[in-house]
Design brief:
By secondary structure, this protein is mainly alpha-helical. It contains five helices and no strands. It has two domains: about 45 residues, no CATH class; about 30 residues, no CATH class. α2 packs antiparallel against α3 and α4 runs antiparallel to α5. The relative contact order is 0.11.
Length: about 80
């Protein structure tokens, strides 16, 4: 897989999606339904979903004024 293929995937779907797709491709195994389900879940995340996940990982309550403001900016 080349950068010419990866760059548009990163731009459109984000780095986590492109990285997982590359890892699956590099493994050399045939794709399974589970692989597609995992990619579909990553590809369907919104900016707000990713913001909420990052805030949760950082220990920031999602109902705090700062979190609410950041989540709104990702809309």
């Amino acid at each position: 897989m080349t950068w010419a293929i990866l760059a548009p995937l990163i731009a459109q779907y984000g780095l986590p999606f492109a990285e997982l797709l590359y890892q699956k491709w590099a493994s050399g195994t045939a794709p399974t339904q589970s692989d597609f389900d995992q990619l579909r879940a990553l590809g369907s995340q919104t900016a707000q979903d990713r913001m909420k996940l990052a805030l949760t990982k950082a220990g920031v309550p999602l109902d705090s004024p700062q979190a609410v403001a950041l989540i709104a900016m990702a809309a």
